[in-house]
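Summary for the funding panel

The consortium committed to producing paired sequence-structure records for every protein in the target list. Below we show the first two records in order, beginning with the earlier of the two.
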Amino acid sequence: MKRSILFFALVAMSAGAQAADGLKLGVGVDYSSGDYDSDTTTTILSVPFTARYTRGDWSFKASLPWVRVDGDPNVLPGLGGVDNGNPNGRGRGRGNGGGGTTAPAESGAASGIGDLRLAAIYSVDTGSDLGLDLTGNFKLATADEDKGLGTGANDYGVAVDLYRQVGSALLFGGVGYTWLGDSDYIDVDAVANANLGVSWRAGGGNLGLIYDYRQAASDGYDPRSEVTAFYALNAGESTRIQLYGVAGLSDGSPDWGGGVSLTRGF
């Protein structure tokens, strides 16, 4: 499971106010476990470092994680199950200390820097209570493909998100499309995604639910379908703490996951 830039943007919206100009820095911990259409349980631990700069109607975001993956070499962070033909990857060949053999193993573990994700978001003035965000995003392949931490290829995508306050609840949803890059060993497809959510004030913070759907990245695998429950709490004027838990609804998703993040404005 990956906590996308869009996810944290939606949580920020649920905190109830327009994003103020300036810089925000954050750090988090994310953990998930699932079999992703395989017979092996794969666990993914991610520690993302994030930055967001807002000026007027524009916001710019960057996220770079440290990741540890333990499990099936065909499961990659952020994508789930793919056909990974890299002979040196996690649990294979010299990528797992296998004495030079390239025969796939049931599982393996590896850790390192993940992929750098960048986004530019424009908030459109609709002249009404309806909020509209247009996003362009880019993934720079900084993760080591020989460790099975990424595909080794760059991705880019677009997204449209809508949100509106209805009584005491904030309703939001969006659609996106991502062109996934192929590498020498991994052939992936472009994928569409959609999300729908609601949040409301609770106990001094904001409680909410998000449903996420995304097409499978490779043929023969199930799409991702999952529900996330979150709670966002302001800890002072410029600090926000966010907790969340995830339940997978399809074989292409993790069985479960969760995490926490801390964001501070400057």
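The next record, for a separate protein in the list, is shown here:
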Amino acid sequence: MNNNIQSSDSGLSANGRFGRLSYLAWNMLLGFFLMFCGVLAAFIVPNMMTSLSSGASPSLGIFIPIIIIYIILIYFTYIFAIRRLHDLNKTGWLSLVFLIPLVGLFFWIYISCAKGDEGVNTYGAPRITRGWEKVLGWIYVIMIPLSLVLTVAVAIPAYQSYVKNAQMMQMQMEQMQQSSEYSE
């Protein structure tokens, strides 16, 4: 076995490297966690709102879990980005580029697509991409363009319907104004 490859390290630590598929797989796991929290919230929040409508005073109890989940999400997003940057032999501080609107999107595309160093670099030996990471990573790769196509397929007809309805409302308003002018 090649001694220049890390056989075990924690994916939840900022130390070490992530290949492209590992990075995408761990981000997909983070997405699953977020979806699970969303489904859980869909069951819990309506019950909380019912108790609020019955006269109970609103509390921070509703918002504290959301804040905690948001902090966890941000933390691991940056941990995964730092590990991916280490694979590219770049400092983890570059992950702060995500904070710049629109530039962060292109930066994410870059770190998702750029090939990492094959051998040992400043941040250590390359990490072995586990089988489940390869599977989830490829699913993520397939889901990105598919979700973009589906979004466009839904958004364009919805926008066209909105424009059509807005034009009809505009015409109705003009007709109402004209009829009120004639009646005077």
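Regarding this second record: The mean pLDDT is 84. DSSP finds four helices and no strands in the chain.
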